[in-house]
Amino acid sequence: MNIFEKSQAIKNQEIKAKDNVEGFINTINNTNNSINAFLEINNENAIKKAEEIDKKAQNKENLGSLAGLVFAIKANINVEDFIISAASKTLENYQGSYNATVVDKILKEDGIILGITNMDEFAAGSSSETSFYGVTDNPAAPGRIPGGSSGGSAAAIAGDMCDISLGSDTGGSIRNPASHCGVMGFKPSYGAVSRQGLIDLSMSLDQIGPLATDATGIALTLDTIVAHDPSECTSIDYDKPNFTEIALEAKTSENPFEGVKIGICDEFKNVTDDKINKIVDKKINELSSLGAEINEFCFNYIDLCLPTYYLINYVEFFSATRKYDGRKYGHKIEDVCGDEVLRRIDMGSYISQREFSGKFYKGALKARSLIKNEIDEMLKDTDLIMGPTVPKLPHKIGEKLDPMEMYAYDVLTVIANLSGIPAGSMKAGEVDDIPVGLQIQAKSFEDHKIIKAFSAIEEL
């Protein structure tokens, strides 16, 4: 049963929403102590909401599209009455006083918010090892990192602790853990989903998006959260399609890849482990045999991507953290944060100084334009770009990596954030029993093409 089928079964009372919630609560009670995916859950409210949904269903009342589906929310997205700490001691006592726009939309469609998931502190990481509340384990590869920064949200899906989770993606923070945990994760086009209520890492790069076990879960969530928000300055009003219909149609289509143009790049392969390339290439070749047209492209700026991304990230993160001065929001961030957060603050402060900002930050913005133009040109006559999500397998928890080794996880995912395009990751296979992700990217606001591909590939 996929997530859409479960949602229909709940509406038809073939499955009780209360049973759905209680099943996840039991799993969390049995496994979360070792996995550490959830930082906080509210059993009582979730069960009460489920009982209300079951009563509505029994009375044949109208129910929302997410009725009875259980959600987990990353700890940097505001949910009223939960501790929204961004996994930092800085905000350890900050209780959400309002809901982020995406949370309100989920609740309006009768989705159930069960709890808050772990993450890298302030989303500054790629492993979920920097949380003030401890590391999250990977249910799909125990003893290894789940990826980051949305590691708790990915682990909650992989560990069967919820139906759908929300994460944020600044340079791969949804897709990276989706790859490592063997689940689906999706970063929408920049501006498609409201950022209102999200704790900033880098304002010009951040996007909220879903993780789930299958394409219908991603699609149902996008149908809910993709919408113009007049209160949020980056939100864009566009004529969105019905993502769920697209996902369902792709499952029954005889030739979903007939005539689809897919771009691949040697430069993506050149920075990726051979074992991962082998798995990803095999999956793409399957699509070729189903009628997809595979075209090779050159991407000339692969070496620019990481320095461009991190220079922008440092400056914007430094600016975003100036409000954490200890007077209004808990502790002063510099006094209590971890090494990686402090590193980014220090670098951002340095680069932001007048004598350096022109040389570094403005130079990074120019490089960003080069990267975006190159990607836009690749996608001009191409439907999808495919390749590996992450260039290497997740390391073992506790293994020491220097900052540049850690940043290298992001080399293939930052491209979509710098370009503002949609991108998703789904499981392509395994290397030594460790999941490997296939990354799929498309033109801005052609998010539906990725959903269609997700759904069609699932049926293979």
**In the residues, how many domains can be counted?**
2
What is the CATH architecture descriptor of the largest domain?
A: Alpha-Beta Complex
Strand tally is 11
State the secondary-structure class: alpha/beta
Largest sheet: 11 strands, mixed
Write the layout of secondary structure elements.
Elements: H1 3-11, H2 17-35, E1 38-41, H3 43-58, E2 70-74, H4 101-108, E3 112-117, H5 151-158, E4 164-169, H6 175-181, E5 184-187, E6 207-212, H7 215-225, H8 243-252, E7 261-265, H9 266-270, H10 274-289, E8 293-297, H11 302-320, H12 333-336, H13 339-352, H14 354-357, H15 361-378, E9 384-388, H16 403-407, H17 414-419, E10 423-431, E11 434-441, H18 447-459
Parallel strand pairs: 2-3, 2-4, 7-8, 7-9
Antiparallel strand pairs: 1-3, 4-6, 5-6, 5-10, 9-11, 10-11
Helix pairs in contact: 2-3, 7-8, 7-18, 8-18, 11-13, 11-15
How does this model look, in words?
This protein is an alpha/beta fold. It has two domains: 3-250, Amidase signature (AS) domain (Amidase signature (AS) enzymes); 254-304 and 361-459, Amidase signature (AS) domain (Amidase signature (AS) enzymes). It has helices at residues 3-11, 17-35, 43-58, 101-108, 151-158, 175-181, 215-225, 243-252, 266-270, 274-289, 302-320, 333-336, 339-352, 354-357, 361-378, 403-407, 414-419, 447-459, and strands at residues 38-41, 70-74, 112-117, 164-169, 184-187, 207-212, 261-265, 293-297, 384-388, 423-431, 434-441. A hairpin with a 2-residue loop joins strand 10 (423-431) and strand 11 (434-441). The longest helix is centred in the first third of the chain and has 19 residues, at 17-35. The relative contact order is 0.14. The model has no long low-confidence stretch (mean pLDDT 97).
